[in-house]
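Q: Got a minute? One more chain.
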Amino acid sequence: MSKNNTASNQINHDMMNPLEQEVDFDSVYQLERENTEDQTHTVDESHAINVDQASNEKVLSQKLSNLSCSQLRQHQNVKQSYKIPNYLSNKNECFQKLIKEVSSTIMATTTTASSTSSQNEQDLRQMAILIYRIKSEQIFQSLWITYLKSGTGQLHINQIGPSVWPTQVQTIVKQANKAADNQNDACMTLVQERLDEFKTKIQQYEIQINNLKHRLQGNKEAIFRTIETFIQQNQENFRQKIEHKIKLVQYDYNDRALELEFLRQNPSEYCIKLYKHLYDARYKQDVTREELQLVNERITYYNKTSSKLHQQVSHPTFISTIINQDAQQQLYDQLTAAVEQAKVDMLNLYVKTADIQMKNYDKQYNKELDKMFIERKQKSLPIEQQLTSIMLNLLEKRADNKKERIKCVNEFKIHCLHSNSNH
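A: Always. Here it is, folded:
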């Protein structure tokens, strides 16, 4: 197992760093605080610009009325500088071209001298920034609406289920007040206030956009839609990340709901232990199978990009000191081939090991099921120590849901992998 993990870590380190950056969802709240989508493919965040705050907008700083912890308040009351992505900066050629084209259209239809090209371009840039902020708030808003539905048992349409607050919400509340009297109320307060903040900020930005529209000449709605389309195209990566996060919240809700439904069957302690044992065995089986598929996709990606990686292979500096050019090139090629072959061997070893693990887990899970059914058939176990048909059905449903979650995560990784190779 340790060798397998080592090989996996080495593969990730050598070839998958861009992918790992793409799918880092360890802290959604931190992602929200940064208030900017990940620009891994197109933006170097060190070149992002800070927008003038003279627009008198309110920062995201409302207090949680029912949570009396200064730590959370300090965490949420941090003034956001609204780091704007590079695609909206004055240095971005595509953005500048768009602004000038729209400005030219305005000037061509202007019948008065009340506006100048410079003023129009300034207003259009400000409008673009406001649209970007609205879209960002709306995307985050959709995530927190999902949090609310999960916490109020309304995640499934026309069906009321158990209250399951996502881990992200519970973590923030616990950091705020570990001794909260009512955890459910604390979570509800946090989510409701966050949604109110989104609504307020969106309304503020819309008012500012309407003021800008009032100053502009020409077809104002067409101008707005042109800029909006540009923003949406550049935010697609960010939107997909949050949609992926929403899917995971839904899977986690289903997992907890199915677990609670099992417990409502009043299982004995032995049944609970057996249930957990079978669930863990099935999980190992599914996660290994999905991991094997993922590594095969990574191998395909590696083969496609091997020529690029070939050019990036570093070599000892002494090679450049060899006077004979033919000897220098020969040694260079030999070292490069050795590095490439080592990577191929490592990948093949990983696939072989994962395949063996998968087959072992398959046998282990099937063996446990066979044992259970034999004991039931032979009536060697008391009734209270047997999983009922309903319990087994719930076990399978929960395991299937977990499998789909694993598959969802890996498919998103593969999507990011292919997206990364296209940039």
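A: The chain has two domains: 35-263, 269-421.
Q: Perfect, thanks.
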